[in-house]
Amino acid sequence: MDEGASRTGTPVASSVESVFREEHGRLLASLVHRFGDLDLAEEVASEAVEAALVHWPVQGVPARPGAWLLTTARRKAVDRLRRDRAYAARLAVLQVEADRADPAPPADTGGDLPDERLRLFFTCAHPALAAEDRTALTLRCLAGLTTPEVARAFLVPPATMAQRIVRAKKKIRQARIPFRVPGTDELPERLPGVLQVVYSVFTEGYAASAGPRLQRLDLAEEAIRLTRILRRLLPDQREVAGLLALMLLTHARRAARTGPGGEMVLLEDQDRGRWDRTMIEEGRGLAVTALAGGPPGPYGVQAAIAAVHDEAADLATTDWPQVVALYDVLLALVPSPVVALNRAVAVAMRDGPAEGLALLDGLAGEPRLRGHHPYPAARADLLHRLGRLPEAAAAYREAIDLAGTEPERAHLLRRLAEAEATGDIGAADT
């Protein structure tokens, strides 16, 4: 859908946007597989949506709207290629090269090829692309996010993100990166990049970077589905099991994370009876698989942390010493300031807010935490608990300015009001 076009509030327009969001990855992957050109695929997909906005108000929304969009887009692509023979000839060469490079499905899949979106994931996560471009391109092409939405996820200006996406697509075209799932011998070295991309899609679904909703369940569930495909494709890869475990153990809390009006509900206030116990049990089993048989990987350790939370009856009975110990392991594997931030919060739960705040203040100079609203939000919470209310209010204001979604801002505004009200009462008493 054209990012510059205004979105109407009509029922048909809403249906088209809903279908496009749901079918975008499948539609784009099918078109790229057929025509071998990502730019062409995006253009005709957009034209198909425009056609839907014209025809659906008259003919009604079709029973299989995704199939309608795909058929329409394919016809438009064929029409365009017929008008441009040189373009068609170039695409034909690319398609032949891709077909020659595309291996047979690995024997352990039983001949069940993963769907075309997984092919596009491996293309977008190709090592020839810069690491920051891989996830950006995947969020744009597979998850259906607009370029401004991807830019907000990366905390960069939309123009910068547009340049990255154009650069990545140009690299795919110039390097003739094939649209295929790599052969069995290539998969292990390509896997970390793909897992990072899939997890980025899940993260955007679990905690949206912007918009009116805290969660985008469609993205989270799509990432889980694709990780299940990876799990079937690579059953011996423990980090695939770890990533799937992490997603399931986290996604199991989805129903309790928001209230009836979509408001944010913190972990300590969630109704744990609403957590999906079937999903938790599956995730726990996968976490055991991920941690057995060798040194742990980052996803396996994160899954173990999620399992500790899911096993606790409430926040007070959570095994915080174990959580901190697991974060110590994770920090050794992934020396990231974001991991250090999460560890500091766990230390605050184990040893008290003063200890956690000291660790957070030690991260103040980390560039990656600038613009990352959980950092000032965590400081605000600990300052609030310590009774340092003016400082807490200032940190809440900083977090409000950085928060991307409306539920997060609303929660922080409530906490700010509480801190200010308490501070006023204290001033009156003195």
UniProtKB/TrEMBL annotation:
InterPro entries the record matches: DUF6596, RNA_pol_sigma70_r2, RNA_pol_sigma70_r4_t2, RNA_pol_sigma_r2, RNA_pol_sigma_r3/r4-like, WH-like_DNA-bd_sf
Annotated keywords: Sigma factor, Transcription, Transcription regulation
Domain RNA polymerase sigma factor 70 region 4 type: 124-172
Origin superkingdom: Bacteria
Statement: the UniProt record of this protein carries the keyword Transcription regulation: yes
Keyword Lipoprotein set for record: no
Domain RNA polymerase sigma-70 region: 22-85
Name of this chain's protein: RNA polymerase sigma factor
Source organism (scientific name): Nocardiopsis mangrovi
